[in-house]
Structure formats: C-alpha cells, structure tokens
C-alpha cells in the first residue's frame, strides 16, 4: 500500500469537494494536522475512520485504500481493509518499539546525570567518594528494577522482583561500608527490606492493575523510592551514620524529584504530540 499515493488521492478528492483540511477534519472528528499527515503520506487514517472518510470523499473503501478510482489492484474491499489493518498494526508495533527505546534513553540519561552530580558534589566537598555511593546504589537499584518492565514481555515482574531481592543484600553491605561500622547491619536489614518490599508492591500494583501510563508510574516510583523510602531510611540509619548522611538524603531526594519531573514532562509532551 503506497501511503504517498493514498495521501495524494485524499488531497485530490478533498479539493474537488472544495473542502479545507480543517473542514474535512471536522466531519471526521479529527484535527487538520491529522488530515495533513494523511495527505503527505506521513500517517494513515485509523481503521475505524476509513469508511466515514470514503463516504465523505464519495468513493468506496477499496478505491480509497488503492488510491485511485476503480483500482486494478485489490477488488475485494474486505481484503483491502484486512491488509491495511495488518500494515497499521506493524507500523504501531514499530512505533511502540521506538518509543520504548526513547523512554529508556531518557531514563538512563536522567540516572547518569543524577549519579554524576552526586559523585561530583561528594568529591568537591570531601576530595573523595564516600556518601555519594549511597544515592549511587539507590539509583542503580531503581534502574535495574525498571528496565525489565520496559524491555521484557514475559515474566518481567518476576524478573524485576528477583533483581530487587538480589540487590538488597549488597546494598546493605554498601551502607555498612559507608558507615564504617558493623554493629547495625542486622538490626537495619529487616526494616529496610520491609519498607522496600512494601514500596515495590505499590509500584507493581500501579503498573499491573491501573490504567496509569507507564512513564507516570515510573515517576511515581522515583517519588516513592527516592523520596519516601530514602527519608525513612535516613531516619532509621541516622544514628549510625555521620552528619553527611543528611547531605546524601537531601541530594537523593532532590534528584529523585528532578528526574520524576523530567519523566512527567516528557510523557506529557509525548501524549500531546500523539493525540494531534
């Protein structure tokens, strides 16, 4: 199916009807930008819009999809619609894959910015890497949990949970290393694990059982883990870690809110663009 040919055909028929793109769009309840994309071959009408579009332009559905009157190609209208639907699904699948890669690029870039900022501040203040390892570990765990949810199609929730479970133990040892003492690891392990698992279940529930867009849930995850859990952990381990922990908590909270805002703005802009 030649999108350029179909688009040119739509444009020709519209002009013969003395209609503007806006007027045609109003008849079909779509924007003039959508009509423009059809006519330039940059997009296809939705499958449910095709019969109404053909009726408005005064041609049959098969003629519309062939891009000519009494086309020599497919004569069976149902077959034409079926093949068009298959092509449309393939296009949407490719777009979804591209969108996923863009989303992961934005998330990964935000993580790298956050990690670099933490380590840079730590080094400039202390001339060494100390407390910055704490937010570094926290951000890394969140990233490892989120990536399978976007990239995998089967068992992604189980894999994410497994990654989380495997990350908790080394993360506790990381906290122990930062604190420089060993007497608090076991007393802290249980509350940290409970808080983290509860937070994870909340995030999983939002992903699986709600209609909230994935990127918005991702932003919520940053708030839950980067703000709520981070502050709670700061209170729990505050008596064991020196005053620099306050700096770490503040920076981690700030970066989590910052990253969440970036993700929300990106998704909002992407949603508006796709609705045009």
UniProtKB/TrEMBL annotation:
InterPro entries on file: Cro/C1-type_HTH (IPR001387), DUF6320 (IPR046283), Lambda_DNA-bd_dom_sf (IPR010982), MFS_trans_sf (IPR036259)
Domain HTH cro/C1-type: 10-64
Gene3D superfamilies in the cross-refs: lambda repressor-like DNA-binding domains
Organism, scientific name: Natranaerovirga hydrolytica
Transmembrane segments: 103-125, 131-150, 157-178, 184-208, 215-237, 249-268
Protein name (database record): Helix-turn-helix protein
CDD domains on file: HTH_XRE
Alphabetized UniProt keyword annotations: DNA-binding, Membrane, Transmembrane, Transmembrane helix
GO MF annotations, alphabetized: DNA binding
The organism's place on the tree of life at top rank: Bacteria
């Amino acid at each position: 199916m030649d999108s350029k040919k179909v688009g040119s055909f739509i444009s020709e028929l519209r002009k013969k009807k003395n209609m503007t793109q806006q007027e045609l769009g109003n008849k079909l309840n779509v924007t003039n930008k959508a009509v423009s994309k059809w006519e330039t071959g940059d997009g296809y009408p939705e499958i449910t819009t095709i019969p109404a579009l053909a009726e408005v332009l005064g041609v049959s559905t098969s003629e519309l999809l062939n891009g000519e009157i009494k086309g020599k190609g497919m004569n069976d209208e149902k077959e034409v619609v079926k093949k068009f639907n298959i092509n449309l699904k393939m296009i949407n699948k490719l777009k979804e894959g591209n969108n996923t890669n863009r989303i992961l690029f934005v998330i990964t870039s935000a993580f790298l910015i956050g990690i670099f900022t933490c380590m840079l501040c730590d080094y400039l203040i202390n001339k060494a890497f100390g407390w910055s390892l704490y937010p570094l570990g926290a951000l890394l765990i969140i990233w490892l949990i989120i990536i399978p949810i976007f990239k995998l199609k089967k068992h992604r929730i189980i894999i994410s949970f497994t990654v989380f479970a495997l990350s908790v133990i080394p993360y506790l040892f990381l906290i122990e290393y930062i604190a420089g003492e060993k007497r608090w690891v076991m007393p802290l392990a249980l509350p940290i694990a409970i808080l983290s698992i509860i937070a994870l279940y909340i995030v999983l529930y939002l992903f699986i059982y709600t209609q909230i867009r994935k990127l918005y849930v991702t932003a919520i995850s940053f708030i839950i883990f980067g703000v709520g859990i981070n502050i709670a952990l700061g209170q729990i381990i505050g008596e064991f870690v020196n005053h620099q922990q306050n700096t770490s908590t503040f920076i981690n909270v700030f970066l989590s809110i910052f990253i969440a805002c970036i993700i929300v703005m990106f998704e909002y802009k992407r949603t508006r663009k796709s609705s045009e």
